[in-house]
Specification:
Blueprint lengths: L4 E3 L5 E3 L6 E4 L5 H10 L16 H6 L1 H6 L5 E5 L2 E9 L2 H11 L1 H7 L5 H4 L4 H11 L6 H4 L4 E7 L8 H15 L4 E6 L4 H9 L3 E2 L11 E6 L3
Parallel strand pairs: 6-7
Antiparallel strand pairs: 1-2, 3-4, 4-5, 5-6, 7-9, 8-9
Amino acid sequence: MNPLTRRGRCGRPVPVNSDQVRIRPYVRSDLDALYRVCLRTADNGQDATSLFRDPKLPGHVYLAPYVTFEPSLAFVAQDASGAAGYIVATLDSHAFWQRLERDWWPALRAAYPEPPEEVFETLPYPEQYALHAIHQPPHTADELASRFPSHMHIDLLPPLQGRGLGRRLIETLVAGLRAHGSPGLHLVVANGNQKAIGFYRHVGFTEFPIDLFPGGGPRVFVMDLRA
């Protein structure tokens, strides 16, 4: 049965709307379920189960460091089947990357050694990208961090997409960031992910005017939180 349906009289499915999906703070018992959500959305929002040799790799990179070091900025979308989406963030990107360099990446580099170039080139792109993040971690450009120091990741399983839940998760996170005094939020999205780009524009993000990834690389979207 679709996770966004429940059984009514005579066993007929009754649609479950977004009001029946609860947005709540992350708790540690969510972690395994959110690892699965991360894997099932790690190919530009599509299921990447077949694209990773280790199904935990995307969660190690895009999820776990956020809920480990800044759990107060992690929120979960839960339907009748359990946790089916999340949003995670960091308040200060510069400080976050420094902490990961000290306390997170070293263990992952030992667990996932950088493969030889001839092996790396045979891997699916999502796994290449995750391995690159471990061995050559991202950084936040000063011109971006000065105005929009916070950054986020959001993932929803397909049955929860298109129901206003992404907006609700972002609104919940924005309230939390403002309460912590953040002046601005940014995110990075793949250049070809037009669905995500359209969504972020729709919920109030604008494209950062400086091209930080020339040559057709990812695009950066920002939101001013001072208003």
